[in-house]
């Protein structure tokens, strides 16, 4: 085992003396304290309210679930730059309505500049051919949009709900309003990230959420991150990892790129770490982009060859194991090596590492799910957990780590094209039961997924599109196609707190802007659901910006305006009544109606789902999956595998032109040093990436990344991504493509 693992051990950088430099002087690292001062300065006009948001609210950043400045896992203050960078969205004042009179001027601004203009204060409308938007009253908006919704064929109406600070109340009312209006076309941002996790987990283990809790990370023998970069996306996790390391946990990275923040991090709330940094990752396995299925099959093959599976757990709590054994036997090491991009010895080393561990937690994110084999990758991670008996007991589990606050709750509220409230499948029986509870007909068909909404719009089959937050122009592949599709929708409704460039796309007939309150301003407070299934409450932190309204009330009132004669069926007299209804319709949310103050929370299912190996599937047993091995990558045609990555940003909200963790500018093309040398390229060289869909002009950025693989920032590279490549189970886009590299001649004197 040592021989196979030694080449994958993450080695500390720099001399022992250099590593003792206080606060990482001279080292590329996050400048937490400097950035905190900058945040305070940006919010200086509303510091009192900013403090109320931080001290009383549940974080609107990632889905870890910090309430105020504390969580339920470890003591101490928890505060990260993701949350602080979002703070200005909650403190900024209203924009000048006169600015909306000239769309051309706004369209020339980038989204960073647009959000600095301020909050949307009033409803606005723009008709085709008009230069800008005109302010209207809420009464006029209700009257005109209500009439349009009433005469619209429900099959030509669609709703997309973002994950930006959206509460469970908003998700719940969105799905109820959509179904009240007769459309099944309701989807949320999880479609673009963890939808493959949902479908695979329900199939294999019967649940679509983390099977364990954050406390299981701290003290497990091995903690493995597949296609995940929590140091960037969920920075508070670095505090968990620091404590895990202190208790002997081995942290393992399975990712094409060794993310610097996962290698070494300066945790600002820990004195020692803030001064000298903390080495996090112990081992790194640079799997090829798209090679995860092969890598996981190889790991299972090696575990089986060594007899390193938990036969007792498998016999008592699972089915389908013999089919998995037969499937693995069919796969040659040659094919697995070619697809994984790693030699057999490396895969066996990883298997030895897991096989020698008594406990393990397996974590994954969009590096797994945003591929055409996303659900299959998740299936095999679950197979691996089952083979080792790592489900349903302490310091063990399978964790789809959520990127955005309460995106976990979105699907559980039924705000999903493929599920009803409670995550129930859309069947006649389930629709009948919901219909009886609601008192109005429930559509029986599956709705359009988010990519399908765009395709329907492009075909001219959508008449009204209600987009609550989000920016499909910047999140989906092939933005030119998205732009064209949106122009073909007669009526677009953009419900949001700030401006983005999607709003300025030419109207089919008219575009509406509806001003929303933030989650903290939401009347009667609101709740969200964390990655570890903890439902947490934020009390209302009163603030009124113009005529902004609570997001769930906007949805309710528009539906009521369409069908006032049965508007009473929508319910939701206030936030308390809405949570009472959620508790009735989604039984495992019972208790949400009793949450009243900051820190009020409960974890549905307790510390572990599937505790003791009891799975909510027929016979109480999990089901091993046997997906097919994807075709091997093309390695001899001169092309590279290209994938998008996040930098200093929150979804499409970009906060810095240079990533503080690795120093990469927005035009950086992360490249293996050997690949660069073979092409006679050096760091900083201008290059062009080219495929059939377009070109990307960037600069070489040498990085620890698997050979044959490139990464560029998202969304800048989305125009190179094929919109038709999606995960077959979930319809989630595959953000991987193939490109050629062309060197650009540097002008003399440049």
Q: How does the SSE layout of this entry go?
A:
Elements: H1 2-6, H2 32-42, H3 47-56, H4 81-91, H5 103-107, H6 111-116, E1 124-127, E2 134-135, H7 138-151, E3 157-161, H8 168-180, E4 186-188, H9 195-204, E5 222-226, H10 230-233, H11 237-246, E6 250-254, H12 260-263, E7 264-265, H13 271-276, E8 278-279, E9 283-285, H14 292-306, H15 311-317, E10 318-319, H16 321-330, H17 333-340, H18 344-355, E11 360-364, H19 366-369, H20 374-388, E12 397-400, H21 407-412, H22 428-438, H23 450-458, E13 464-468, H24 472-475, H25 479-487, E14 491-496, E15 510-515, E16 526-529, E17 534-538, H26 551-562, H27 575-585, E18 601-603, E19 622-623, E20 640-645, E21 649-650, E22 653-654, E23 668-671, H28 673-678, E24 686-691, E25 694-702, E26 709-713, E27 736-743
Parallel strand pairs: 3-4, 3-13, 5-6, 5-11, 6-9, 10-19, 11-12, 13-14, 14-15, 20-26, 23-25
Antiparallel strand pairs: 1-2, 1-15, 7-8, 16-17, 17-18, 20-27, 21-22, 23-26, 24-25, 24-27
Helix pairs in contact: 2-4, 3-4, 7-26, 8-26, 9-20, 14-17, 14-18, 14-20, 23-25
Please sum up the structure shown.
This protein is an alpha/beta fold and 750 residues long. Helix content is 33%, strand content 15%.
Radius of gyration: 25 Å
Overall mean pLDDT: 94
Indicate the overall shape. globular
Distance between the termini: 51 Å
CATH class of the largest domain: Alpha Beta
In quaternary terms, these chains amount to single chain
Q: With helices defined by DSSP (H or I, 4 residues minimum), what is the helix count?
A: 28
Q: Biggest sheet, in brief?
A: 7 strands, mixed
Total count of strands: 27
Poorly predicted residue ranges:
none
- Which range best describes the helical content: under 10%, 10-25%, 25-40%, 40-55%, 55-70% or over 70%? 25-40%
Beta content? 15-25%
Strands of the biggest beta sheet: in what spatial order? Answer: 2-1-15-14-13-3-4
Secondary structure category: alpha/beta
CATH architecture grouping of the largest domain: 3-Layer(aba) Sandwich
How many domains would you count in the coordinates? 4
CATH topology of the largest domain: Rossmann fold
């Amino acid at each position: 085992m040592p021989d196979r693992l030694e080449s994958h051990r993450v080695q500390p950088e720099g001399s022992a003396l250099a590593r003792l430099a206080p606060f990482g002087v001279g080292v590329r690292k996050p400048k937490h304290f400097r950035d905190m001062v900058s945040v305070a300065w940006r919010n200086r006009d509303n510091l009192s309210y900013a403090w109320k948001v931080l001290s009383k609210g549940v974080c609107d950043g990632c889905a870890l679930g910090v309430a105020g400045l504390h969580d339920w896992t470890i003591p101490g203050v928890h505060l990260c730059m993701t949350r602080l960078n979002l703070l200005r969205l909650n403190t900024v004042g209203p924009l000048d309505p006169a600015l909306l009179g000239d769309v051309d001027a706004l369209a020339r601004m980038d989204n960073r500049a647009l959000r600095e203009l301020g909050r949307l204060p009033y409803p606005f409308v723009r008709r085709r051919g008009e230069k800008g938007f005109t302010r209207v009253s809420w009464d006029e908006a209700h009257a005109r949009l209500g009439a349009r919704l009433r005469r619209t064929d429900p099959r030509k109406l669609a709703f997309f709900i973002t994950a930006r600070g959206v509460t469970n109340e908003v998700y719940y009312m969105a799905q109820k309003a959509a179904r009240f209006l007769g459309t099944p076309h309701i989807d949320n941002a999880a479609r673009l990230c963890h939808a493959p996790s949902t479908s695979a987990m329900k199939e294999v283990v019967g649940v679509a959420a983390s099977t364990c809790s954050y406390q299981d990370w701290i003290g497990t023998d091995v903690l493995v991150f597949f296609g995940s970069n929590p140091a960037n996306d969920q920075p508070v996790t670095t505090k968990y990892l620091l404590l895990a390391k202190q208790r002997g946990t081995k942290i393992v990275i399975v990712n094409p790129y060794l993310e610097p923040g996962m290698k070494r991090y300066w945790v600002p709330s820990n004195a020692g770490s803030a001064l000298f940094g903390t080495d996090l990752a112990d081992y790194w396995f640079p799997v090829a982009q798209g090679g995860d299925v092969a890598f996981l099959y190889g790991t299972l093959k090696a575990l089986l060859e060594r007899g390193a599976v938990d036969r007792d757990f498998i016999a008592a709590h699972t089915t389908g194991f013999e089919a998995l054994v037969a499937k693995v036997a069919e796969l040659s090491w040659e094919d697995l090596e070619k697809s994984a991009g790693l030699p057999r010895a490396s895969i066996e080393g990883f298997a030895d590492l897991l096989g020698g561990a008594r406990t393990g937690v397996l974590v994954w994110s969009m590096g797994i799910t945003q591929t055409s084999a996303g659900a299959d990758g998740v299936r095999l991670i679950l197979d691996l957990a089952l083979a080792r008996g790592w489900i349903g007991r302490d310091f063990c589990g399978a964790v789809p780590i959520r990127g955005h606050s309460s995106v976990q709750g979105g699907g559980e509220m039924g705000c999903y094209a493929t599920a009803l409230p409670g995550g129930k499948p859309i069947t006649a029986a389930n629709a009948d039961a919901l219909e009886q509870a609601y008192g109005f007909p429930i559509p029986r068909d599956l709705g359009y997924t988010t990519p399908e909404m765009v395709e329907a719009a492009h075909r001219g089959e959508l008449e009204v599109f209600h987009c609550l937050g989000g920016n499909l122009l910047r999140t989906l592949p092939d933005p030119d196609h998205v732009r064209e599709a949106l122009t073909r929708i007669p009526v677009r409704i953009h419900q949001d707190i700030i401006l983005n460039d999607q709003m300025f796309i030419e109207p089919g007939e008219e575009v509406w802007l509806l001003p929303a309150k933030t989650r903290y301003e939401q009347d009667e407070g609101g709740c969200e659901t964390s990655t570890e299934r903890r439902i947490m409450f934020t009390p209302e932190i009163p603030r009124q910006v113009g005529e902004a309204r609570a997001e769930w009330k906007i949805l309710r009132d528009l539906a009521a305006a369409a069908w006032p004669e049965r508007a009473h069926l929508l319910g939701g007299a206030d936030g308390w009544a809405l949570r009472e209804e959620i508790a009735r319709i989604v039984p495992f949310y019972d208790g949400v109606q009793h949450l009243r103050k900051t820190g009020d929370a409960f974890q549905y299912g307790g510390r572990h789902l599937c505790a003791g190996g009891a799975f909510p599937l027929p016979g109480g047993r999990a089901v091993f999956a046997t997906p097919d091995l994807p075709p091997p990558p093309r390695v001899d045609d001169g092309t590279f595998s290209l994938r998008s990555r996040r930098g200093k940003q929150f979804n499409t909200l970009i906060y810095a032109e240079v990533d503080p963790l690795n120093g990469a500018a927005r035009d950086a093309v992360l490249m293996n040093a050997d690949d660069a040398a073979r092409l006679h390229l050096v760091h900083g060289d201008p290059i062009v990436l080219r495929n059939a869909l377009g070109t990307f002009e960037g600069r070489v950025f040498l990085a620890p990344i698997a050979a044959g693989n490139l990464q560029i920032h998202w969304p800048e590279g989305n125009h190179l991504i094929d919109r038709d490549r999606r995960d077959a189970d979930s319809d989630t886009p595959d953000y991987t493509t193939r490109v050629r590299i062309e060197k650009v001649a540097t002008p003399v004197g440049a």
